[in-house]
Structures are given as C-alpha cells and as structure tokens.
Amino acid sequence: MPTMTMVEAIRDALSLEMARDSRVILLGQDIGRLGGVFRATEGLQARFGAERVVDMPLAEAAIVGAAVGLAVSGLIPVVEIQFLGFTHQAFHQMLQLARLRYRSRGSFAAQVTVRTAFGGNVRSPELHSDALEAHYTHCPGLKVVTPSNAYDAKGLLLASIRDPDPVLFCEPMRGYRLVKGEVPTGDYTVPIGRARLVREGKDVTLVAWSAAVQIAEAAAERLAQEDGISSEVLDLRTLVPLDIEELVKSVKKTGSCVVIHEASLTGGFGAEVVATVQEEAFYWLHAPIARVTAPDTPYPLAGVEKYYIPDVARVVATAREVVRAK
Amino acid sequence: MGLQWQFWPIAEPVTPWQLLRPDGTLVEGGAQPLSDDQVFEALRLMLLSRAVDEKGVSLQRQGRFGTFSPVLGQEASVVGSAMALDPRRDWIVPQYRELPALLWQGLPLERFLAYFMGNPEGGYVPHGVNVLPVQIAIAAQLPHAVGLAWGLRLQGKDSVVLVYFGDGASSEGDFHEACNLAGVVKAPVVFFLQNNGYAISTPRSRQSSCVSLASRAIGYGFPGAVVDGNDLFAVYVATSQAVHRARSGEGPSLIESITYRMGPHNTSDDPTRYVDPAEVEYWRRLDPVERVERYLSARGLWSEERAIALRNEVAEEVERGLGLARSLRSPDPEQLFEHVYAVPLPRLVRQQDAIKGRSVRATLPSEW
Fold first, then answer.
1. pTM for the whole thing?
2. Are residues A170 and A104 in the same domain?
3. Which of A70, A155, A253, B324 has CA atoms 20 to 30 A from the CA of A63?
C-alpha cells in the first residue's frame, strides 16, 4: 500500500471519481493549469479537459450558486473554495445548497461537495486560517466532514461526492503535506457519520477533529509517559452527522472528556459535543467536561498564532486537571 | 494638439422598444408577432394572473392565504417573456412574482397557491415541469440559472434558461457574479430584469445611478436591450431574440423590461406611504392587459361577451386551483422532517419522535 500525503490522497480521490463517473465536474479558482493553490487538482485538467476541470471567475457565490444549477441539470459538481475563511462570500449560496431538497419537497437535490482548506500554524495571511466549521454545522441539509489523515481524506471524499446531499469538506491546511499515511490505490469509502477510535484508553476521552486530532494524539502520548494517564482519543471525522454513539460509548467508559478544537471557544462545535455528552452520559461523568480551544479573538496574524491555537501542553495540562478532579 | 485622454462616455437613456402602442395600435411597420390563438392564450394567462391576485389579496385579508406578491401591472412582461420559451426543453428560474410564467411551463396552479398558503407541498415541482421553486432570497436564483443553463449545454442539450429578477435584485452581488460567469462560460441564459420601479419602497433611482440597467450587459461582454414591459408583443419579440441567441450558442443576454408594479410589494406593504397617486394614474393608462384588449377590439376579435366569458373561465380556474390546493396533503408534523436529507439523520429522527410525542425530549438518552 503506497504512502500518500493528504493532498495526494485527495487528488487520488478526485481523479478516481472523475474517471468512474462522467457527471463529476470540478469548479474552482486556479484549479486548472495551476492545479489549485494546494495542487489538489494537479494534472486533472490535462487528463479530463477544461470542460470538466473548470477555472472559475473569482466569485465564490457564483461558484457555489452555479453548482446548485449544475446539480439540477444532472451533473455532480465538486467545488474548491480555496479557504474556509472565504466561503462566507458564498454563505447564502451554501444555505441555498443546503435547503434545495427540502424546499422543493425532494423534486431537486444538490449533490454537491464543497472542498475547502482551513486551520492554522502555517503562517498564512489574515482570514486564510479561520476555523469556521461550526457556522456550517448550523445549516440543516448540509453535512460537514473534517478528515484528519490521508486514508480518511480519500475515503470520506469519495463518500462525499457520492452522497446525494451537499457536503462541506474541510481539509486541514497544515496536514496537506505534513500528514502522511498508507492509502489504498483503489476505490474505497469511509462512511460519513462514523467517528474513529484513534487510541484506546480508560481515564479520559480526548475528542478532536481535523488537525486537532494530531494534537490530541501527541497529548495522549505525553500523558501516558509523564503521568501514567490512559487517554482515549476519538476523531469525530464528521461533525454533521455527529457519531453520538461512539462519543457516548467512550465517555461512559472513561468518565471524563476534553474537547479540543482550533476554532474560538464561544459557539464552537465543542459546545455541541459538550451538550451532547451532558445529555447522554451525565451519570457516567466523574469530572466536569473541559474544552481546549482558541480564545474568543479573531484569528490573529502569524506572529502570535502559536498562542492562539491549542497546543499539546494546554491539552496535557487540561486533561491532568480533569483526571485529578475525578 | 497632443493626445487627449478621455473617460468612456456613460450610458445614455434608452427609449424602451415598443411594438404595440398604449392605444392598442401597432407602431408603424410593426406586425403581430404571435398567432391569434397565441394572443388569446397570452390574454388568458394575464387575466388568470390578475384573478389570482384579486382572490389572493381577498383571502389573505381573511387570514386564509399567506403573504404574497401580486403580479398586477407586470402581466405582459411576465407572459410575453415566458411565451418565447418552449416548455418541453427550456427552463424558467423564477423569483416570486411570475405566476403566469410558471403556469406556461406547466406548473399546476394549486402548487403555487399551496406554497403561499404555507403548505410545504407547494414547493414540489412535478417531474417534467421545467421550473425551479420560487426564490425568496433576492437575486440568489441568478447563479442557479447560469449553472443550470451551462450544465444543460455541457450535456449537449439545446435548452435555454430564462431567469426573472427585478431592479432591486440588480444591485445585489449575485447579479454581478452571475452575469459575469454567464459571459465567461457563454451560458444559454436570458437575464430578464423586470424594472417595475420599486424594490418595496425604494425607487429605481436609488438602486443605481446607471440610467439604463440593461447597459450593464456591455460590461459582461454580452448584449442588453430595453423593452416596453407593458407591451406583450415587444416583450415577446425581444425575449425570442435572446432565446434564439442562447440556443444557437451565442451566449447570454440581458433584457430590461420597463414595467410598473401597480399594487403593493406584497400583502404586508402599504404603497400609499411612498407612491405618488399621480404616478399610479399615469401607469393605469398604460395597463398591459387593456392594451391587448384594445388591439383585439380594433381587429374585431374582442367583445364584451368574450371578455365576460374569459373572465368567468379564469375565475373558475382559480376556484378549481384553490380547491385542489386545499385537497393536497395538509401540513402535518411528519412533513416538517421530510426531505431534509435523502436519508434522515439519526439525530433528526429522535427530534421527530419527540415532536410527535413518542418521547419526552429530543436529546434525552434512551436509558433515561
């Protein structure tokens, strides 16, 4: 099985699905000759032609809005918006995507995947790193998928493109080239709505998604070595739908929970995780649930982002307190 | 003299193109562009639209119909443009004030009525009826229309998409982005801008300092035109030209139809607060339906008896539509949860159970 970076795994999925299904069409800025700003579509225009890998005008709302119409016409658009922080130029059209099936009583559906990069620690300019995924978890009709590794990225992307409903597919910028793993060359899907148990443990559950999963894993390792604390690490993989079953099962086992995300605290998806655990597993909890997140500030310039994004030390310190409180 | 630097000239006001004068006579050299049967079909659709407006306002006042936007005054603009399409292969992407165009495409009247009665079933579009559901978010439908037109073309179809919007919508970013994209991909789309003078209370003069909204087409690399929107024949001819252009692969065009909203923005609006009565009176003399009736009268094809018969016919059609709308599945809690996703999400199923009283709270665990 070959080793791939996340961006290679994503390209592999796109290439595979375009070859398999002639209805699939890629839309985005700079995705043609350039191959996308992260090279996720490198070589695809040469292989599939400029009618299927389309360089679009710099207009996010038109790209997502056109995808609605293209889907109605019978095609399967896969959109690339370069950065999640720019998807708000198309936020109203994302809502149009989300509710097309509902408002037409199933007469029409938007089988559209919107791929986008997000997340910090890459010293990018303003707005490029914003972790805005929670905004989209509040849009019924839309699914929100947040892979953390190359295997999941490919399998979840194939599942997303084939999903009859619209999917926002958030790719961690930092992971594009740093995160590598074994990825099968052929066709496989990872089901949307299933969390992944990354590491088994018995003292505390660390819940994360996307780039924060690596932080959680590193924290678990340090907690084991320095404190003898056994952490269970759960990668949610998809936020909508949320795998409540896996989440609750893990918390019932460990009796405590720490949620880690890159987005700012208030109204972050961590709040939804905490509320769900409280509702479903309150009597199994032995300590208050904790959140390790960015502070409630706008995403800062690169010089201070290391203070903004949760790091291993903060997760370790928080998990220690939680376990001590049990 | 050295080289003289100059700005480009700004757009000049354009006289709307006309075929049928307000007095019901054709302009010099003008010919009737539709067959007599088609003219009668157009008149039927216009009167049907007017009958729905009247009935709808009356029912709304009694609390039996929801907030809706009458077409009143814009009938020739809507019907003349729609009739330039072939409903079997062409599509209409509406805003919300284009009922007769939807009927032309084959949407059952009861669906439209049900929608404005608050019944979700009204959003359903039967298979083979080439329309999208009405769009409430201003201008949001414009990129959809471009994508649809482009997608049909990519799949080798010769379909054309006509999209309706207003003078207010032309100020939205979606208008700019959609026109720009349509020009780039040469989408077979007709941008049909109904300039009815107002966006709720905001007059056309506050939307843009551009004297002609159609002139904006130049900036997107495709043609625009201004047409008398209360002239059924002129609208039909102008739109037919745009449809022909689109079908033959020449790409999009923008038609600005100058018309007038003779009623309120919607049933919650009170235009007496912002409209000069003299202005309404001016436009009343330009009534698009009476113009066609005058034309037919002059040709000896219209009489008081025929008028009464046709009005009775459309009144019956409205009653029939209302009856059918009421006989559709009436709103129930199940309906709230259907069609959110292709396959319901487990969490939503639990919320559904809670609302139906099968469990206490949507979020309580089963072991509680």
1. 0.96
2. yes
3. A155
